[in-house]
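Reviewer 2 asked us to include a model.

Predict the structure of this chain.
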Amino acid sequence: MATASQIVGQHFFKRWVLATFGGWLLGVVVTILLAAISEGVHLGNQFAVGIGMGWGVGFAQWRIARKWFGATSLWMWATVVAMGMPFVLTDVIAKQSFGNERIFLFLNVALGALLLGLFEWLILRTQSKRAHLCIFMNIVGWMLPAVGISLMPSGHPESFLAIIFNISVVAFGGVVLGIVSGVFIVWMLQLHPSAS
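Predicted model (structure tokens):
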């Protein structure tokens, strides 16, 4: 029989995964909007990915985090800055399209995840001695969807299966990120009934 602590942890975990998934989808929409705006004013297009996904995920996670472990809006802004900065730097330094976008996607996501892990460690270190694991959690959680995206066929997929695969990879990136980060947060913070 599950203990009260386990039930509360499971309740948080479900909400966290759903929120991260929703934030991921919101991030895709925001990324598309920012990319369209950047095309109109001739800016680079990399920043749209980092800022769009960072804001979508950060916003959705913050709405759960503030209720469960008292996170402030700093959670959201840390996600925007950490995930956005590498992509913005790519635009500033390159000012053109790269030959291999997937390599830069990996590098940008890895650096963004590392920065986000450091920010989240700073936010959670007073609540858990295990908070340093946020660094590992974010690298794994953000890089797994990046690997999935790298497996997507390049160009414009023509077959129905390729289109379904691409949509699934993009959509379920948020689920993967939510599961990885949710497991770690429940374990790090040892969520208990008083957290709800």
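The CA atoms of residues 103 and 150 lie 9 Å apart. The chain has one domain: 12-195. We have added this to the supplementary material.
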